[in-house]
Automatic annotation (TrEMBL):
This is Histidine ammonia-lyase. It comes from the Bacteria. The keyword Protein biosynthesis does not apply. It is an enzyme of class 4 (lyase).
Length: 509
């Protein structure tokens, strides 16, 4: 994957999903906006909080307890100690730890939210968060324990604790204590100001970061599934006229039409041998309709995710111009929850589609003359060879697990925290589910891609240029299966290539 040249700038201007992905993959530099007015405005918010404290004003979470405990007044003498209490009692996350890419995405998403300038934190806090990204000092964040409204309080407490030199980090590829890492960097750990722990934790940065990653994977998967479909149409001698432009002008969902256009470009009708059936089975004929739903959803998914990414999503918010406090509920991650629940369903449908195509390929009743299980063994060894039989069974298992993962998380709101958080989004669970469904679907895609490759090899027809070029890139690492062999290593290599977006697919769009 190429390194981007222009750095990502954290500041008042919006960032794209792609910026977060490239940052998480360490393929781009970043910097904080240098505009002195913007920097001044950030500090102005923090000064307003301090000024209110001096005047002994009531501000939720600063001079009161948290959540349901907002009715408990905090004496001014204890206000300074409250932030540490907040991240400390939220140090109860469980489950697996987010990997380094996700942890970077979380830091980036939180930083971008605080850059909106209405969270009442010092510029020094933004600076330190950004320095963590630059030095690749990453919090070790347990995935589980967020209800997604009050944002991601518990997982984000690990960001707050790290900045204060507490808990564990990933530092130079190893698990270390935050205190050790700070000492080696020569950094003084931060002591958070009264609003700062809340500003760091009371938001949607974990779910939004995971949503950015899921979106990027889904975008690539869409193109890959289209290319695999084209290979399978060629392998099965399917009917490319199903993708005619006139047909798609008659039902003009733009994303669906784009998938059909990609298929047309891959399956140059003039160069293909005659088809076997007037109408192919639906997993081929309706591929633009299945993939098109994902294609047409990417626009609104991007809108939901990028609006959340570039929003102030904590509470309370500080208006640095008017100099007052606004109490609200922007930590509620409903948009990300719905986007990720939807993406799960969209993605699992791709798994199902490719699994069905693979089922056609291996079955001599439907594969129009290809050998049983796509085995390339010569006649005298054919009876003991089983080719792609187990790979197809595996793909059915992965597809089933992906489909099972589509249960919406957002409908499982629980009233929690003494009924203060009595309606919550579960967006973080939805985003984690989406990533799991994507992982399973990528596995199905790897199986379908290798099977499609074997299919066109066994068919032996000349291929249209784009497919021939793809097959060329696949020859290295994925030799035709003649005698049975364990294919797990090749499947893993293929998965790795999918994850790193190895093939440049339909780049002009
Ligand atoms: N999200 C709550 C704050 C909160 C913080 C920590 C908690 O444990 C509970 C609630 C609010 O802004 O209203």
């Amino acid at each position: 994957m190429p390194i981007s040249v222009s750095p990502v700038v954290f500041g008042p201007e919006p960032l794209s999903i792609d910026s977060i992905i490239t940052l998480a993959e360490r393929r781009v530099e970043s910097k904080l906006d240098t505009d002195p007015l913007w920097r001044k405005r950030i500090d102005q918010g923090a000064a307003i909080v301090d000024g209110m404290l001096d005047r002994e004003g009531q501000i939720y979470g600063i001079t009161t307890g948290y959540g349901d405990s907002c009715v408990t007044a905090i004496p001014l003498s204890q206000v300074e100690t409250l932030p540490r209490q907040l991240y400390t009692f939220h140090g109860c996350g469980l489950g697996r730890f987010l990997d380094s890419e996700s942890a970077r995405a979380v830091l980036a998403a939180r930083l971008q939210s605080l850059c909106q300038g209405v969270s009442g934190v010092r510029f020094a806090l933004l600076d330190r968060l950004h320095a963590c990204l630059q030095e690749d000092l990453l919090p070790r964040i347990p995935e589980e324990g967020s209800v997604g409204a009050s944002g991601d309080l518990t997982p984000l407490s690990y960001v707050a604790a790290m900045l204060c030199g507490e808990r564990e980090v990933i530092w130079q590829g190893e698990v270390r204590t935050a205190a050790e890492a700070h000492a080696e960097l020569g950094w003084e750990p931060l002591t958070l100001r009264p609003k700062e722990a809340l500003a760091l934790m009371n938001g949607t940065a974990v779910m939004t970061a995971l949503a950015c990653q899921a979106f990027g994977r889904a975008e690539y998967l869409l193109k890959l599934a289209t290319r695999i479909t084209a290979l399978n149409v060629a392998a099965l001698r399917g009917n490319p006229n199903h993708f005619e432009a006139r047909l798609f002008a008659a039902k003009p969902h733009p994303g669906q039409a784009r998938v059909a256009a990609w298929l047309r470009a891959d399956l140059d009708v003039a160069s293909l041998p005659p088809q076997q059936r007037l109408q192919d089975r639906y997993s081929l004929r309706c591929a633009p309709h299945v993939l098109g739903v994902l294609a047409d959803s990417l626009g609104w998914l991007r809108g939901f995710i990028e609006t959340e990414l570039n929003s102030a999503n904590d509470n309370p918010l500080i208006d640095p111009d008017a100099g007052d406090v606004m109490h609200g509920g922007h930590f509620y991650g409903g948009h990300i929850a719905f986007a990720m629940d939807s993406l799960k369903t969209l993605t699992a449908n791709v798994a199902d589609l490719l699994d069905r195509q693979l089922a056609l390929l291996v079955d001599t009743r439907y594969n129009h003359g290809l050998p049983n299980n796509l085995s390339g063994a010569p006649a005298e060894r054919a009876m003991i060879n089983h080719g792609f039989k187990a790979v197809q069974i595996g793909a059915s298992a992965w597809a089933a697990e992906a489909l099972k993962g589509t249960m919406p998380a957002s409908v499982f709101s629980r009233s929690t925290e003494c009924h203060n958080q009595d309606k919550v989004s579960m967006g973080t669970i939805a985003a984690r589910d989406a990533l799991r469904v994507l992982e399973l679907t990528e596995q199905v895609a790897a199986a379908a891609l290798l099977a499609g490759l074997q299919g066109v090899h066994l068919r032996g027809d000349p291929l249209p240029v784009p497919l021939a070029a793809m097959v060329d890139t696949l020859r290295e690492g994925f030799a035709p299966v003649v005698e049975d062999r364990a294919l797990d290593g090749e499947l893993r290599l293929c998965l790795d290539r999918i994850r790193t977006r190895y093939w440049s697919l339909y780049p002009e769009t």
